[in-house]
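user: can you give me the structure for this one chain? tokens are fine.
assistant: on it. calling the predictor now.
[tool input]
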Amino acid sequence: MGTGPLNGSSGDSLKCGTDRAGRVALPNVLVLVLNYNAGIDLEACLKSLQASSYPNLRIVVLDNGSSDGSREIPERLGIEFHAYGENLGYCAAYNRAFRGLGANVDLILLSNPDVVVPTPTVERMVRAAMREGSIGFIGPVQRHADTKDIRSAGIRWSCGHLPRHVRLPGEPLDALEGAFLLVRREVLEKVGGLDETLALNLEDLDWQLRARAAGFRSILAPDAEIYHRRPGPERVATGAYFQTRNVCLLTAKHCDPGAVRRLERRLRLEGIVSRILGRPRGRYILEGLRDFEAGVTGMKALA
């Protein structure tokens, strides 16, 4: 286990060395599954990762203070488990893991707990990573678990606008969605980790924009797929807070002040209209705008 060439690979830009028999060693992949009350979805995710065709895989579950019994699942499956005891959010939890677990690995795979990973997916993503050293991020085609239609094949974004998902593999992209993202270790060394002021939502886009400035590229592995469960209505509504606040923070960080003002006007109108129509997300959009203007960052508990 852990040695031999990947089928169809043309070279090893990761410089992983050789074993005693002189064979090229496969890159070490650390899989970090971040869990927060994912329930039975976590078990399906972990079992699919355990069935991966890629042999040089270390699976670790990070738990952000779950209270639904899901933290017992990794132990039952014999999977390494690290409990944080509180909800640190996406960025702080992963950054802590990067510092504590990221040594002596070649690639780090960030995974949501609500995805199912087909057997060849990780191997195909690693193969894409091995093409050249400038590839910093690799993502699969994400499909909805229920309908199997494409959820995301990348992200497009420009200043003053909201990010949107690419729906057709092969279309231009600016970043990859972070629900299942393979990252070269050198990105951490040269760019650093995730921006904890964002806590969650759009941290993936910010990370890849910073990495692109350092010479790294984000690519889609079109022959790799995952199946992602749709969020419930409550998560969609509260997610509007972080999406709103963070797209403003992202725009202020990477764009000119005029782009921020245009975006705020658009979001405020959307929030007001949503409130008038009785849509729950309207409240969270307006709260996100208020917190951006007040300088509130990081993780926040929402009622």
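assistant: here you go. The chain has two domains: 29-228, 233-294. The CA atoms of residues 252 and 260 lie 6 Å apart.
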